[in-house]
Write a structure and sequence with these properties.
The chain is α+β, with helices and mostly antiparallel strands. It is built from 4 helices and 8 strands; from the N terminus they run αββαβββββαβα. A 4-stranded mixed β-sheet has the order 2-1-4-3, with helices on one face. A 4-stranded antiparallel β-sheet has the order 7-6-5-8. The longest helix has 65 residues.
């Protein structure tokens, strides 16, 4: 046999073996990948189930602790009242009444049955309710007997003298005196206090 033919046969056998080995390696690694994918999906499903169980346990724990939360002696009680006539929301903060210390949300709902509990935590409770009428913080400041008089107004705009201040109108500038004779409407205790401080 010619040497050329022997070399061609050997090269053909080597190429055939290489292709066969390559296909075998490729198919075996592809099979492992599929097994790995299946294993990964199973592990993922198991971990999702575990995470779901952990989440449910955490949720249950949070709900239980929220129900069992007791009011701290240092808690703040905030009362919010919305007045329909004047469209004002008044917010007042106060210390928690002694009888509510160490009580639960249910105890607060019972003690303040005509209020809605907007927020409850051991350190802060927010109550809300709606009232007809106005908020009682509508003031009218006017010159009265040589001093600044403070009037309150109701939802119908009727004025009633609440008190006379000690602020004399005698030495006020002409423009301020003119405004006070006509009367100035002020809404809110804080705004009233600031207004009067400007004239002291």
């Amino acid at each position: 046999m010619d040497k050329k033919w022997i070399i061609c046969i050997i090269i053909t056998i080597i190429i055939g073996l290489s292709i066969g080995i390559g296909l075998a390696v490729y198919s075996s690694s592809n099979g492992e990948t599929e097994d790995m994918d299946l294993l990964s999906e199973k592990e993922l499903a198991d971990s999702e189930e575990t995470n779901s169980n952990i989440l449910q346990n955490t949720t249950n724990t949070v709900e239980t602790s929220a129900i069992d939360a007791n009011i701290s002696p240092n808690a703040i009680l905030i009362k919010k009242i919305y007045y329909e006539t004047c469209d004002h929301l008044i917010r007042e903060a106060e210390d928690i009444p002694e009888e509510l210390v160490n009580k639960t949300e249910e105890d607060v709902k019972e003690a303040y049955s005509d209020w809605k509990v907007e927020e409850f935590s051991p350190t802060q409770i927010i109550l809300y309710k709606t009232k007809s009428g106005n908020c009682g913080e509508h003031y009218f400041v006017q010159e009265h007997n040589g001093v600044i008089g403070i009037y309150t107004t109701d939802e119908y705009g009727i004025k009633k003298l609440q008190e006379d201040t000690e602020i004399s109108t005698q030495y006020l500038p002409e423009e301020d005196l003119s405004n006070l004779k006509a009367g100035i409407e002020i809404i809110g205790k804080t705004n009233l206090t600031e207004f009067l401080e400007d004239y002291e």
